[in-house]
Amino acid sequence: MMHFLWLISMIGAVACQTAPDYGYATMSDVQGPVPPGPANWSTIYPLCAGKLQSPINIETKKEALNSVGVPWGVTTTNCNSSIFTLVVKNSRGSEHTINDRHFAAQLHLVFYNTRYGSFSNSVDKPDGLAVLGVLISATCPGNRILGNFARKLKKVTDEGASINVTASDGIRLKYLMPFNNEQEDIVDDDEDDDDDDASGIDNDVDDGDNDDDDEDVDGKKKKIGYYTYRGSLTTPPCYESVRWIVFKDKIKISNKQLGKFRNLKAQYGGAPGFMCDNIRPVQPLFKTQSVLR
């Protein structure tokens, strides 16, 4: 049985760099020299042209019917890892697509194989990482936990800034899972209020597999739906070391909450001066890959 360690972070790259040698912008977006965008990442990182690359388009009518159980041996720690992908338009914010459809954003929760002792030792191993991909839909109401998270972003607007975030801030990642029934939906959030938390929410992560989850209101077990495949990091160096688990159900985010994420600055984001459009285009699905559900 493989166990993974949960990596929790603020928004950032898998490998933080003070002077990145890749970006999302094009020559028409910014002045001066521009690091290569996704189409040219492989000129510096050859693995980005590999045959197990992510993200992919998931075609629900074609995916295999096999069910794959996911072992959970989870501990919490902090590490730099990508947590959000965003674009300016709600119709194309996620990296993974379902039947060619994008969603407003995508949340990544990164785990590493404790067999290798650390994230840095696991990142390039074929069985080194597992990433939960949570698709996010722009709706009203939004999600209270994302709202609590978004309130902190004004303190990290500039690229390279950081702030500690704990459960006492009302940010409990369990309640960002699409199968959780207690996401604490909100109609809107006060832009200047940093004290609104989600008190009373438990942050434990339960062991389970594809058929086990929290009980619903009728006391019945609710099945967790997801797609899984072997893929890669969606940023250079594009190591093909990831077991992707993309949930079928989505979580909510309001347009106001999205706006706070889109105000984050980045020199080489896809939108000039901002982190928006930090998505890699969908990659080809080769015969060496199979998508299971």
Automatic annotation (TrEMBL):
Residues 185-217 have a biased composition (Acidic residues). Residues 185-218 are annotated as: Disordered. Keywords: Lyase, Metal-binding, Signal, Zinc. Pfam families: Carb_anhydrase. SUPFAM superfamilies: Carbonic anhydrase (SSF51069). Residues 1-293 form the Alpha-carbonic anhydrase domain. It is an enzyme of class 4 (lyase). Residues 1-16 form the signal peptide. It catalyses: hydrogencarbonate + H(+) = CO2 + H2O. Belongs to the alpha-carbonic anhydrase family. This is carbonic anhydrase.
